[in-house]
Every structure is written in structure tokens, then in C-alpha cells.
Automatic annotation (TrEMBL):
Disordered: region residues: 1-25
An annotated GO cellular component: spindle
Domain Fibronectin type-III: 202-299
Protein name: ANKF1 protein
Compositionally biased intervals (Polar residues): 1-13
Amino acid sequence: KMTQQMRDLQLAQTRKPPGPSSPNAAKRLYRNLSGKFRVNYTSFDEGSLVGRGEKEKPRKSYLFQSNAALFEAVELQDLDRVREMLKHYSPEELDLNTPNSEGLLPLDIAIMTNNAPIARALLQAGAKESPHFVSLESRSLHLSTLVREAEQRVNELMAQVVNEAPNADCSEKEKQLKAWEWRFRLYKRMKAGFEHARAPDAPSSVHLSVASSSSLQVTFWEPLSVNSAVVTKYKVEWSCSPTFSPLLGEAVIDKLKDLHFTIHGLVSGTAYHIRVSAYNMKGWGPPQASMPPFAIPSNWREYDGRAPRRRGQAEALDHLLGQVKTVHQHCICHEPCKNQPQSRKHSVSKSLKHLFHPGSKFLKTLKRGLYLTAIFYKDDNILVTHEDQIPVVEIDDTYSCLLMQDFLWLTKVSCMWDDILWLRQCVTVSQSSCSCILQTRFKMLLAISQMQGLLGIQDLGQVFFEPIKDKQGNILIVTLKEVKTNQTFESVRWVPICKLQTSRKSVSSPEEPTALDMLLISVQDKLAYHQRSSHALSPGLYLGYLKLCSAVDQIRVLVPEQLPNILCHVKIRSNPNISREEWEWLQKMASVEEPVPAEPETDRSQNPLFQELQVAIKELMTLVNIPLQEAKDFRLYSQEVLDFGDKVSFLLLLPPSDDVCTAPGQNNPYTPRSGFLTLPLQIFELGEER
């Protein structure tokens, strides 16, 4: 029988309805349990210890709960099964923090049997300890009660089996006896685990860093010894006094997926001391002081009171654009602009039918001239016309060469796809000067409008950084856009890229491929570039390498192929903030015009940023194939830290002044290894903004 204390505990515990969140899934999971999972033990209440009689169906409805399946996996110490259930079901579906009839949670069983792998898996999934174990005495009393009641049931069933004649009921009693014997051993093991455990040691290491002018970040590691009990939570405490009296605040961390914590709401310029302690079922262990012992919330901008470079820039540009539009809105030639919003209301599914309309003006072949093509792709398929052609429209059939300035202008226009009609009309007004450049750009806007109208899509995507040119005098400007929607469109043909390449190869000339042939040959590379250029860096502080090369009509910048919207870089640390003290140290380095040090000195060995930079510089020099001894002539850009939002920041490593930008014809003795490319500077700036 359950003690009255545990009966009251069960009544007080608010539980979910008997049915699981996903009953069918729970049933399938339970049916697939291995043979050892099918031990026929049930609850302590004799009324629930039934065989295969009249109460079988109600009992199955309880056993089929995912909660029961998880308890069995934990009790049988089946780590693979526990991980499988945590992977496929949410904590709510598993009733992860709902106690069983014995008042235990899955995490309680895992930690009291000292099964660290299962306990850690449960903790990372959000498992909690039972809130009813408010003291060591209450936990000890509860375990003793479970052991005593299990032993009593074993003795009762053993007497019944010995005294009864062999029959069907006796066989069922033997099964119950076997289940209770197994559970009796489990509870004795849990009780022994609790009695032998001690409070954990202090965390093995606590690292303190400045996260901002009002916050500190604390990172800590598990104790080297947990004294036979899994750590289930940590406590972070902070104070302005090294004795921690008075204590300014504390936070208990029970989500242990990542062992770090950020303390917010601190006062800039004030020193704070931090310590961290660990907890297991035997209580709190001793605290571990942080290293360094204190930190002062600050930011590098406080050094000279500098405001963020981009503060208010976006708003100012929007305001200027609004003013320009206001100036032109009264012009007669801009009246059609009022109809533009209506054209945007066409659904993609309806407008994409234009691809297959016999009257579409997409080109099948290229003549000598300038063309625009739009590639829309989804997975390994691209969108084609009703004739299995990539959509192409003509810009200018008399344009024999593409000036780089016109191309770069078009890439900027790609940031305003929705305003093409307005831009086209503005250029029309300005065309009275008969400028050749304006005429070319007006034709570009006409071609964009034509492509948007035929596709019924305003956003044509991102302009590829390099036009395609063939020997026949064709120049092809390519835009790329990924279609992520799962919606199916009527009459739209999505063609596998490989199929389109095969069909194109059969009709093209391998000796002199056209720009379209060259596009299809390299389309996978272009799609890969487009996808990579939208990737973002993980939060942290990075060391970037700025290397430029100039040509007659453009400046190009060296970038990695895997992340072409960012400079060549290595990660310095996960904390993106540069504190005021760190920035002062960097300014001192710059003021004495020291080269970037190759080896640490004694007085700098205790500077964490110095040590981090040492490692990062060596890694970056290896990445860009520059001998480490050349780093003595490199410089750190000391005018500012480049902040990209609140999560990513950059320090720049610069070559010597004469080598920052390689001039045409100038020999570059150190060529980066494969995996890099050079982008026009304006293209890189647009990609950075995206």
C-alpha cells in the first residue's frame, strides 16, 4: 500500500488527462520496444496489478502512454531508446515532467541510479527533478518507503505462489512476483545511490567576459568530480564586493544545453565579482570564483564616445528617397505609377502562366547584343518557359560591350525591384540630354519591366556578380532567386537542371558555346554562390583580412567561396564585444607603431585578447597562404571595430600600405589557395548589406 503521505502527494499533483498528446505515435513506439521492455511490472497499487483479465484494456490504455514508455526506457537504462524518444517527441508528448504513481520523474530515476548519460540527455531536453523532494530527509524517507513497500509485496506474492496449487492464477502471480522482484532491486539501487552520493565539487572553470556596456557573460564547465551524482543545475552569483557581501543578485540555471549565462542590467564602469556553484541531489557544492576575478561592463565606443557609424543611415536614405518621389509625383509622365500597386497584387500562381502563353516575348536564341535572364530555382529544379528555355529578354541588340559602370548600376537597381516603373519614368524625363549612358540604363529598366511582366513577379532576385560573355558578342546578365514555397502552380514547368543541361547539349555547338550554353554548364556553381552569399556568421568576434586588387574600371576584394558576402576571416571568440580596456590596449599597440607580434611577451601573456589574437593571426595567415614571418609587417585597423548588428563584430588585419591594393600588372607573391574568389567591391558591399 502507498503511504498516506504519497497518496496526498498524488492528489496534489496536477496531471494531464490520461491520453497522451500523440496516442497513436505512443502506441507505435511502445509496440516497437525491444523484448526487455515488455517486463510486466505495473504500479504499487494492488488494484492496478492485474493480469490479462477484465482490467486488461484499461491498463493498456495507460501503458501505451508515451510517458510510461519513457519511464521503462530510463529504468532499464536503455540510452539509445531514451535518445530516440527525445528526438522524435516533444517534452509535452512524453509528459517529461509528469510524475508516475510513485511520485518519481524520469530524471529522478536516472540521477539516483547514477546513469549520467541518460540524465544529461533528459536535462538537455528540459527534464526537471521532482519538486516534492524539498529536503534530503524527504527524499531519503520516500526512497525508504518505496523499498519497504516493494519488499512487502514481494513477500506477499511469494507466499501466495508457494501456497497455491499450480493453475492459471498461480502462473499470473509468478509473473507479478518476477516484476516486483525486479522493481525491488531497482529501488534498493536508487536508495544506495542516494546514500553514497555527496554534494558536487565546484565547477572546474568559470570564465568571465564583458558582453556589453551593461552586461557580463559567464561561461563555466562541469566539476571534475560530481561525487557519484549528476549535476542538475548551477547557481551564478554576483556582487560588487570580493566577499560577496552584500550579494547583488543570483540566477539558477537548470537548462544545461549550454553552460553559459549573461547577466543583464548592470551599471557601466562598475566592477562585478562572479562565482558559480553546482547542485546535485545532495545539495549545493562550494562556489568557484571567475577568472578574471572581476569585470567591468563596457564597450569600445566609450573610449572616445563614438556613435555607431550606421546610426540613422537607413532612415535618412528612406527619407531622401521619399523626397525624390514627392518631387516627381506631380509630373504627368508619372501618373501610371499610381497603378503600380495593383500590378503587384497578381498572385504568383496566376502570373506564372505567362511563361506558357504563346504570345510571350522570351527569346529562344541570342543574337549579338545585351540580354537579361532570370533563374528561379527550387531544390534541383529551375523554372523554364513552355519551350523548355530559361527566361531571357533582350536589353539592347546594338550593345557590343558592357561597361562595368552600367552593370554595377544595375546591381544597385536590384535592391529596388518594386520601384522599377518609377525609376524608368525618372530616366525617361532625364533622357532629353540624349546621354548614351542614360539610354542604355533606360533599356535595362525596360527589360526588367518586361521580365517582371512576363513572369508576373516583381522580385527577380540577386544579380550574379559577373556577366556571361561569348565569342559571338552576346552578353548575358543573370539574376538568381530561390523559390522556397511548397505551393504548386498550375501549368508551371519545373525542369530538373540535369535534364535541361542534357537537352541543351544535344543542340549546342561544343566548339563555340553561346552565352546560354555557358550559363547551363555553370548553373550549379552560380546557384551554390547564390545560396552561400545569404549565409550568416555565427555570433562572435572575427579577424578579417582585407585584400584588394584594382583594374582599369573596378576594384575587387578577396572573399572565401563558402561565404562570399564576408571578408576572409577566422573566429577569435564567441563574445563579439570589445571592452573599453581591450580597445585601450589595441590603441596603445597602434600608437607605438608596433608590428603585429608573432610571439607573446611576458607582460602580455596574461592578456586574454592578446592570446586570442596570436592564435587567430596564425590561423588566418595559413588560410590565405601567407608565411607567418610576413605578419610582422601587417597592421590591425585601429580606427574602429566593424559591428554587424549586435551579434557579429570584426577586427581587420591589413597588409602593408603598399600591398593593401594590388595594382594592374603588379606581382602578388602570395597567391591564396583554392577556395577564394574576387568580387567587385560594389557587389561585395551589396552582398554584405543583404
